[in-house]
């Protein structure tokens, strides 16, 4: 027996050495036997087409803040408090938390985990799972484009208010006057903040059929917002990763400042009691649970492709399960925390309005000798008001002064931010300071979400081979310029009406369908066993019963319920929009014109149809499918070393013929280019990559000594795991 030789070789799974027929120096022939330890491999442990030089996060904190900045957005400030108020107060937290656990967290892990596993954008991920699913990535990209178009318009309005916040007094604190010194009728019939929003800021048109011309001040602010967004995302996470430290942390600082100031204001307790007093009977209404599920879905930013993109920049061994749980808790806590701040200040505003109402009624009662003097006690005032009947109440032109009624008037969305809350800011001492803080916070929240939205869309675009050849700065510039030009429709007098139409149709049904297809693709096509094993290989944690039940049954059922209810409500309820009536000083509900509904239907179809179109075209071979990248890699998952060489040779012969004339990218089922397919030009523009982040130790391929001994080389893919010793015995 010859002496034992110790070979330091990488852990390659199963290896088999052929008989060594080369004669030894002593005239004998020998057999080389390689003994390897058993390996626990994932079913999908083979290399999946990705980018070896893909950009990577510079640190864990940068990734976490980017996810927080994307997930925690404007909806946490102006949507969640409104839903709590309308759907049972504190009782709404029950369906919200249930939907968070059953719907939000499971789908969140699917997107983040698949991005980290595949290290590709949304288009590449679904193409890799199966070429027929490529339409999911296209649909996601189209819907994300629609949302990015109008989301940046909100940032535009925030810029306009931020610039006006440096004026003293605030321009929305008083009504403008005409030449005779009287307040303008439009402002007198509404309010100071309402007039500033609809007339000064938007110069609102009476309807969508009469949009008026472009408002130059809005166009300039829109140009500024898209310019800032371009410089933030032009180099991907290399540039945006530095900005998230501000956009993610600053809102919490501002919320804390407002919280400390808010709880010290008169009426703050009344506002909080009004909001969080549980109305348990509301839980019996199905719409409450639907609102909770919808809020969870949109607050996480699911189905945009952004979470897949963020996950693809992680290292393969990142604990994505822990990240999902931390972000989910942070998102929910932020929504509740913001609600406390908002309603504490709205309680103060309501108290101030009630005091003014009481003072006005007192003056009327004194003039009519129903009260002896203006400084009468509240008990005297209440006793007199109780004695007045309905006829006398109207004859004296008295007003009903109710704190709960004032708090019930709280609005949502732009109405809360630009009308209701600005009125509360006016009542605070040092109002310009608080206005600057508030709108800077909204700007940070908006930019953080916009960065994530664009990053998801651009990452998807760069999965297309022909676009990958262009510098990211150039592609980003073209996308931002296109969005700016299309955004002119939001700069007219009907701009707010268009934004509400986009928000109601462009990002609803399309996103829900994409999310449902994502769950079906991963759990039932890719396989929940494979995905579970992938999570285990990446994190060391094997998802248990909770994850399996939510992925396979509960999650899809909830998504179907959201989809069906959204379609039913859209059909039953005639879609309307709030148009500003300048003569009456109120917002009136109007039906959308037929041509606008046609545009809305086209946007819905544009976000949904790519999935069946790609499926049908590829199933009927209308689009070329690169077997080596997609089906070939999946087919090799369960091959052995003895059969793999034959499959490789067969594939190589087919691929040599096909790839010569194959210019299609992943969007068309083509080859996903790796770094080796490109030249090393523009090296200075490349961000930190995974290859730079990980030290790749130099290993000796186990096949090398076999080749030297005259054997055939088995092309078994090598993994980048820690080396160990192998014992090779020459017999």
From TrEMBL:
<keyword id="KW-0812">Transmembrane</keyword>
<feature type="transmembrane region" description="Helical">
    <location>
        <begin position="63"/>
        <end position="80"/>
    </location>
</feature>
<dbReference type="GO" id="GO:0046872">
    <property type="term" value="F:metal ion binding"/>
</dbReference>
<dbReference type="GO" id="GO:0005283">
    <property type="term" value="F:amino acid:sodium symporter activity"/>
</dbReference>
<dbReference type="GO" id="GO:0089718">
    <property type="term" value="P:amino acid import across plasma membrane"/>
</dbReference>
<feature type="binding site">
    <location>
        <position position="331"/>
    </location>
    <ligand>
        <name>Na(+)</name>
    </ligand>
</feature>
<feature type="transmembrane region" description="Helical">
    <location>
        <begin position="296"/>
        <end position="313"/>
    </location>
</feature>
<dbReference type="GO" id="GO:0005886">
    <property type="term" value="C:plasma membrane"/>
</dbReference>
<feature type="transmembrane region" description="Helical">
    <location>
        <begin position="475"/>
        <end position="499"/>
    </location>
</feature>
<keyword id="KW-1133">Transmembrane helix</keyword>
<feature type="binding site">
    <location>
        <position position="299"/>
    </location>
    <ligand>
        <name>Na(+)</name>
    </ligand>
</feature>
<feature type="binding site">
    <location>
        <position position="445"/>
    </location>
    <ligand>
        <name>Na(+)</name>
    </ligand>
</feature>
<feature type="transmembrane region" description="Helical">
    <location>
        <begin position="592"/>
        <end position="617"/>
    </location>
</feature>
<feature type="transmembrane region" description="Helical">
    <location>
        <begin position="92"/>
        <end position="112"/>
    </location>
</feature>
<feature type="binding site">
    <location>
        <position position="72"/>
    </location>
    <ligand>
        <name>Na(+)</name>
    </ligand>
</feature>
<dbReference type="GO" id="GO:0015187">
    <property type="term" value="F:glycine transmembrane transporter activity"/>
</dbReference>
<feature type="transmembrane region" description="Helical">
    <location>
        <begin position="216"/>
        <end position="237"/>
    </location>
</feature>
<dbReference type="InterPro" id="IPR037272">
    <property type="entry name" value="SNS_sf"/>
</dbReference>
<feature type="transmembrane region" description="Helical">
    <location>
        <begin position="132"/>
        <end position="163"/>
    </location>
</feature>
<feature type="transmembrane region" description="Helical">
    <location>
        <begin position="505"/>
        <end position="528"/>
    </location>
</feature>
<protein>
    <recommendedName>
        <fullName>Transporter</fullName>
    </recommendedName>
</protein>
<keyword id="KW-0915">Sodium</keyword>
<feature type="compositionally biased region" description="Acidic residues">
    <location>
        <begin position="648"/>
        <end position="662"/>
    </location>
</feature>
<keyword id="KW-0813">Transport</keyword>
<comment type="similarity">
    <text>Belongs to the sodium:neurotransmitter symporter (SNF) (TC 2.A.22) family.</text>
</comment>
<feature type="binding site">
    <location>
        <position position="449"/>
    </location>
    <ligand>
        <name>Na(+)</name>
    </ligand>
</feature>
<feature type="transmembrane region" description="Helical">
    <location>
        <begin position="325"/>
        <end position="346"/>
    </location>
</feature>
<keyword id="KW-0769">Symport</keyword>
<feature type="transmembrane region" description="Helical">
    <location>
        <begin position="549"/>
        <end position="572"/>
    </location>
</feature>
<keyword id="KW-0472">Membrane</keyword>
<keyword id="KW-0479">Metal-binding</keyword>
<feature type="transmembrane region" description="Helical">
    <location>
        <begin position="249"/>
        <end position="276"/>
    </location>
</feature>
<dbReference type="GO" id="GO:0015179">
    <property type="term" value="F:L-amino acid transmembrane transporter activity"/>
</dbReference>
<dbReference type="Pfam" id="PF00209">
    <property type="entry name" value="SNF"/>
</dbReference>
<feature type="region of interest" description="Disordered">
    <location>
        <begin position="639"/>
        <end position="686"/>
    </location>
</feature>
<dbReference type="InterPro" id="IPR000175">
    <property type="entry name" value="Na/ntran_symport"/>
</dbReference>
<feature type="binding site">
    <location>
        <position position="76"/>
    </location>
    <ligand>
        <name>Na(+)</name>
    </ligand>
</feature>
<feature type="binding site">
    <location>
        <position position="69"/>
    </location>
    <ligand>
        <name>Na(+)</name>
    </ligand>
</feature>
<feature type="transmembrane region" description="Helical">
    <location>
        <begin position="433"/>
        <end position="454"/>
    </location>
</feature>
<feature type="region of interest" description="Disordered">
    <location>
        <begin position="706"/>
        <end position="731"/>
    </location>
</feature>
